[in-house]
Amino acid sequence: MSSTSRHLAAAATIVALTAVPVTASAATHGPLVRTSGALADLATAAAGPFDGASAAFQLVASAKGSHAVLRVSGIGADADGYTYGAHLHVGPCVAGSPASAGGHYNTDVIAGILPPDNEISEDTEVWLDITVDDGAATATASVPFVPLPGTRSVVIHALETDHHTGTAGGRLACLPVVW
Ligand SMILES: [Cu+2]
Prior knowledge:
With 179 residues, this protein is of the alpha+beta class. Helices cover 14% and strands 31% of the residues. It has a single domain, classed as Sandwich (Immunoglobulin-like), CATH 2.60.40. The chain contains three helices and ten strands. The longest helix is centred in the first third of the chain and has 17 residues, at 3-19. Bound molecules: copper (II) ion. Residues 87, 89, 104, 155, 157, 168 line the site of copper (II) ion.
């Protein structure tokens, strides 16, 4: 390695270290958001497994980013054994208006990094797919970023999340997540 490339490597290391956000102090001040309530209906069908269901969501800053927990209960018996995609979306949770929730919260898209299509993953978005067992389900996600505050939502979809595209079918229900 030449002296020049050594210097470049050292400079790159410094950039990498200083680019890591310091979130340890936030972790000592409790969750960024903790909320619970009845799910709002987004489905077009008259009846669905999440009618009457409720959910609790918590987002906590961690040393490496943040950690999310989603717990859903009161799910219809027909859904037992099924897996449903669930994600943090950028927009609000409005009953009867699936589009209001907007797209997935994607840290690269928020940061203006393009093309976002190459950046869709469980490291850039908060994916919380749930598998229903006896009417309830819990999912956790640890991501290397801290979502920015806003009027957001957790959206539950009809299908499992496709790990290449992030899509998960129609929007069935949502929980408002505001912080
Ligand atoms: Cu989604």
